Amino acid sequence: MTGPLAPDFDPSTARLQIAARTLALDAGAVSLAAALERAGIGSILLKGPSVARFLYGNGDRSYVDIDLLVSEADLSSAERVIGSAGFEPSGSELALPYGRRPHAATWIRTRDGVTVDLHTTLPGVASPAAATWTLLAATTEPMTVGTGAVRVLTEPARAMHVALHAAHHGIKDGQAIGDLARAVAQLPEPTWCQALELAEKLDAVAAFGAGLRLTSDGARIADDLDLPLAQSVEAILRADSAPELALSLDWLIQTRGLRARTRLVGRKLVPPASVLRGRSSLARRGAPGLGAAYLMQPLLLASRALPAVRAWRAARRRARGSPR
Fold first, then answer.
1. What is the pLDDT of residues 188-217, one digit of tens each?
2. Is residue 166 part of a domain?
3. CA nearest to 35, candidates 90, 89, 80, 88
4. Contacts of residue 160, Cβ cutoff 8 Å, sequence gap at least 6
5. Which domain holds residue 255?
């Protein structure tokens, strides 16, 4: 929730701060892409300036991090390159293997606060990461960013990614829905047809259709493309911006093996300290506050369980009722 603006709030100062932040991120993206290339590692810049210019013309779209896609085979080498540039893995990433389905890892550089999301795939894509990289790497074009150049997705691939991004974050994510609405309004039918062809090759049609259907105009495009209505429970939960715990519940149900399920539950009940500190002001009040936050974690989960179960059950009913 956003409160009232401070009496001395200066919109021009805020715009300057956003512009300065954007320049820093663009410079960081170019620098990292160049460092990766020198190490023999290909990369693709996702979102950021590629979407800003693609859909907003003058680039009037803010962004807060750098999203880079690399080959899964190059991931370890890419992490070393990023680490040598002063970035460290985000503490919250420790929870990812047992907390949610990861498609990227977050790295943060403390000295300037720049954040990098290092991807090996895209949300909503079901094809293996190696095949995904091979296909997307062949679907790029150069873009000048600041004083350098990066590789970005072609327009049809960017259109697909915009829809996948909306499907992943759901109807309550204003920027993702705004990007989708602009893409739907601006891009011609042939571009969407090419986007669908790419989604088919990446086994991402379900998420692609779910994303498009988040706006009424997008739903018309989905109908024109004859996209299926059938969706997974996860896709429905994401599209509805359901509670995070509902997604975790779905993942728990889909997880096979007692050991894997126990680890998932354990990470929810006893998450890493960095996760609690990032989410709870109490946990940031020294050791006593952190201990109290751990004691309260089961109660917090219990208070959120009923809405999560309701959301999951509703999504399951919708998935089962969708025509196949």
1. 999 999 999 999 999 999 899 999 999 999
2. yes
3. 80
4. 195, 196, 198, 199, 204, 208
5. 242-308
